[in-house]
Design a protein that fits this description.
Largest sheet: 3 strands, parallel
Order of helices and strands: EHEHEHH
Number of helices: 4
Distance between the termini: 47 Å
Strand order of the largest sheet: 1-2-3
Helix content: 25-40%
Length: about 110
């Protein structure tokens, strides 16, 4: 969880889950930093849109960082986490092949 700033760029281009708040600030002095216009002009994002490469667990909230908004977004994140396949549970668990001779660990144990 973070507000829109430089360090959160690591989240946006990584694989970690995130909720980013406060993309827009209603202040004429910040119109070139945090306005709908600059998001479209510089990043080609409209209010409510997400990065095309973002996973379901990576969200730009487009909301202020109030306690109410944070709670709402965590509820939505929880719903997303509970959907089948989101966490990769459709993949075999790590180490599932350890007991077979085909896995590197099985080969090492057999020697």
């Amino acid at each position: 969880m973070a507000v829109s700033n430089g360090p959160n760029t690591f989240c946006q281009y990584g694989r970690a889950p995130y909720l980013l708040f406060k993309q827009l600030i209603d202040d004429p002095e910040l119109r070139f930093q945090a306005s709908e216009w600059i998001y479209w002009r510089a990043l080609r994002l409209r209010k409510g849109e997400q990065w095309p490469w973002a996973s379901p667990l990576q969200r730009l909230t487009w909301k202020d960082d109030t306690a109410e908004h944070i709670a709402e977004e965590f509820v939505e994140l929880e719903k997303t986490l509970l959907r089948p396949g989101v966490l990769g549970e459709d993949r075999p668990p790590l180490g599932a092949l350890d007991d077979t001779d085909e896995s590197p660990r099985g080969v090492l144990r057999a020697r």
